[in-house]
Amino acid sequence: MRHAFLLPLIASLSLTACGPSEPIRIGFVGGLTGRVADLGIAGRNGFQLAVEQMNSAGGVQGRQIELIIKDDGQDPAQARKVTEELVAAKVVAIIGPMTSAMAEPVLAAATAGGIAVISPTATTTALTGKDDLFLRVTSDTASYADLSARYHFNKNGVRRVAAVFDTRNRAYTESWLNDFRKTFTALGGTLSAEIGFESGDETKHAALVAQLLASAPDALLFISGAVDTARFAQQAREADAGRKLISVEWSGTEELIGLGGKAVEGLYLAQYFDRNDRTAEYQGFRRAYEGRFQQAPGFASVAAFDATRAALEAIGRAKRSTPVKEALLERGPFTGAQQAVRFNRFGDAERQAFVTTIRDGAFVVAD
Question: Which positions fall inside the Leucine-binding protein domain (predicted)?
Fold first, then answer.
């Protein structure tokens, strides 16, 4: 294996606050309960695996790493509160949040404490190109929305798209919709409907799908998480719509297939994770993840693993007094489960993306 996940880091520690025997504390913030818990739990698992592997290899410069995990509940007030608790616990960095909606409160609280935030999956363009303490290991929404728009216009012949977007994660969903619209209309396509909804137990998925279909689209676009995307797909199939079904990388968890069943067969979404990657690097990660959690990794677990590895590798490579953000910007690239992590000067990263579809109950790269 070209990248040995269990090799110790040989470099000086960049933390002056830790004594010679103190552990290095690193925090995680994600939604571990509620409607988007699939994303948060997968992220937590990737975070845990990265730390456990590093500890098994001797830690960073001989120091063990202590995990502190917090649930943001997909609630801004709770996200800010638990981030303040992590700052008070003197973590060196925060991995998270897992949604764009939580990025602002987490970043505000972390910035007040001078702590870098490395998000696995927050992709809103509102945070792109800013010199702040926010970094991320994925591209922003523009990359995925542009790829999706071009694929469906050019390869699937789609000309009219009707979209729903979840306003409970507005920072992400509106960013994604705006980016998709920009590319799709420039190509000559039309957004026949754009309908916002607030996800929850009372969401009327059938009524929303009926509104979409009333605009006579060629395809339905669900800018939502796995739970709602699965339910929208089920309602579309029940209506015998015969339209192409499109979703977004946010929904691309294994729960989408589990909840959606046959209804999500043929659904398309762009994502940066290739589950069929046969490289030794990824297969080593996959075996370790499955052995630890008794399930296959998803995109959120891969991204959280990569974010955690990047933070710990940066700390290990930098001089003692170097801030974590500076180390991340200057000491890369960093080991990833599938792709190397490279940050630009603003802390934004880019990853290769694929259009995938669900075929025979599995995500596969589309033709």
Answer: 23-361
Note the Cα 83 to chain centre separation in Å.
19
**pLDDT single digits (tens) 25-63:** 999 999 999 989 999 999 999 999 999 999 999 999 789
Instruction: Decide if domain 141-271 falls under CATH 3.30.428.10.
Output: no
Give the CA dihedral 73, 76, 81, 82, nearest 10 degrees.
40
Give the Cα separation of 320 and 117 in Å (integer). Answer: 20
Task: Map out the domains of the chain as residue ranges.
Answer: 24-138+277-330, 141-271
DSSP code of residue 66: E
Q: Which of 95, 247, 105, 261 is nearest to 165 (CA)?
A: 247
Distances (CA, A) of 123 to 83, 179, 319: 19, 12, 30
- Give 284-288's long-range contacts (Cβ < 8 A, gap of 24+): 284/1, 284/5, 285/5, 285/337, 285/338, 288/5, 288/49, 288/53
Give the model confidence (pLDDT) of 315-363 as tens digits: 999 877 789 999 999 999 998 999 999 999 999 998 899 999 999 999 9
Enter the DSSP assignment of 102: G
Distance of alpha carbon 326 from alpha carbon 314, whole angstroms: 9
- To which H or E segment does residue 141 belong? helix 141-154
Tokens of 359: 């075929």
Q: What DSSP designation does 89 have?
A: T
Q: CB neighbours of 180 closer than 8 A, spacing ≥ 6?
A: 145, 146, 148, 149, 161, 163, 221
* Local structure of 267: helix, strand or coil: coil
On whether the CB atoms of residues 140 and 128 are closer than 8 A, the answer is: yes
Whether omega before 8 lies within 30 degrees of 0, making that bond cis, reads no
> 256-279: per-residue pLDDT in tens?
999 999 999 999 999 999 999 999
Q: What is the pTM of this model?
A: 0.90
Whats the size of the chain, residue-wise?
A: 367
Q: Give the domain 24-138+277-330 fold.
A: Rossmann fold (3.40.50)
